[in-house]
Amino acid sequence: MRFNLVAVAGTFDHLHLGHKKLLEAAKENGKKVIVGLCQKSMLVNKLYPQSIESYEIRRQSVAKFKPGQIIPLSEIYGPAATSTKIDAIVCSQLSRPNVEKINQRRHNPLTIIEVPLVRCSHGQPLSSSLVRQGLVNRQGFFYPQIFNRDLKLPLSLRPLLQKPFTPVIKKISRPKFGVIAVGDIAAISLLNQKIVPNLAIVDLKTKRRQIFPHLQALGLKSGLTAPNPAGIITNYSVRQLLNCFSQKQSSLLIDGEEDLLVLPAILLSPLQTTIFYGQPDQGLVKITVTEAAKTKALKFLQQFI
Fold first, then answer.
1. How many domains, the chain?
2. 65 part of a folded domain
3. Among residues 82, 80, 78, 114, which one has the least CA distance to residue 96?
4. CB 116 within 8 A of CB 194
5. Beta bridge mates, 28
6. Which one of 110, 133, 156 terminates a domain?
7. Which end of the chain is more exposed for a tag (fewer CB within 10 A), N or C?
8. Per-residue pLDDT, 236
9. pLDDT profile of the chain (305 residues), mean per 10
């Protein structure tokens, strides 16, 4: 049975596979579809708000599904609570409580079409929050699972990784959000500019020569530690990196070499994080963590052995 008019609502931030299932279900079940799109006022309690897309970007993403109408929402009810033209409403298990609140306001309750949750490759429901947190992509691939074993840099990849990930910068500008320094020179350079990184990944060496006796001499507080031999990204060092994020540790001291940890730092940190690392004999490289940067890092890591 197809309804004349079906409603669906949401934030639709970083429109992902779960959102697509909702919008597709609305189109399959309705001759016409109306989409309620949350405005900024409804997003104040969202996690990782710095990377929530603007209303216009989210509207453009939804518009690609060619709904009959997209309306801004400033609260959960919108026209679905009163319109006599809407016949049914699409939701997920997570948004169903709001749909039931809408029906409580109506004289003739809407037919509820519940769409199964899309789950990430690690089993959790796919959400925009996880995408903004930087742990999954829009298809639900859970980035940490690529590190379920130690990864070894192949000889064929070395020339590519010796090139800067992005162009070397001439001047350090103060980032708006989280900052990660990978390498002692990067940490020193930031501290000299009175920019205290949220996390510094260091080994107390430069060009494999010991230059600092301990973290305090570098100007950093003690945090977590991990072994990580040259040419390797160990499973343990990645787990410690994730622990630094969750525990808000400000340093990760590496026994070995930290250079390659730039890649997991890009892949696992929240969107809009800024990462600095030193390019030997050239200067500092600044990376803004975006979905594109994560895709580039992932392609490198998939070539490790």
1. 2
2. yes
3. 114
4. no
5. none
6. 133
7. N
8. 98
9. 95 98 98 97 94 98 97 97 97 97 97 98 98 98 98 96 95 95 95 96 84 83 96 98 98 96 98 96 96 98 98
Query: From the CB of residue 55, how many other CB atoms can be counted at a distance below 10 Å?
Result: 15
Quick one: pLDDT at residue 240?
A: 98
Let me know whether 188 and 96 are in one domain.
no
Give dist(CA 283, CA 285) in Å, integer: 7
- 37 and 123 assigned to the same domain: yes
Domain finish residue from 133, 159, 174: 133
Q: How many helices (H) and strands (E) does the chain have?
A: 10, 15
Bridge-based pairing of strands 151-152 and 232-233 is antiparallel
In degrees, rounded to 5, the angle at the alpha carbon of residue 125 between the alpha carbons of residues 119 and 131 is 100
- Block residue for tokens 């279900």: 25
Domain of 27? 3-133
Whole-number pLDDT of residue 205? 85
Q: Report d(CA 237, CA 225) in Å as an integer.
A: 8
Tell me, yes or no, whether 172 and 217 share the same domain.
yes
Query: Minimal CA–CA distance to 114: which of 37, 30, 15, 22?
Result: 22
At 263 the pLDDT is 98
User: Residues 73, 76, 77, CA angle at the centre, nearest 5°?
Assistant: 90
Task: Give the span between the Cα atoms of 117 and 20, in whole angstroms.
Answer: 11
pLDDT at 210: 78
129: in domain: yes
* Domain-located, residue 139: no
Q: How far apart are CA 174 and CA 189, in angstroms?
A: 12
Phi, psi of 42 (to 5 degrees): -90, 0
Q: How many CB atoms lie within 10 A of CB 193?
A: 12
Q: Are 155 and 216 in a shared domain?
A: yes
Q: Which helix (H) or strand (E) holds 101?
A: helix 96-105
Please report, in angstroms and rounded to a whole number, the separation of the first and last CA atoms in the chain. Answer: 52
Kindly state the tokens that stand for 153: 């840099």
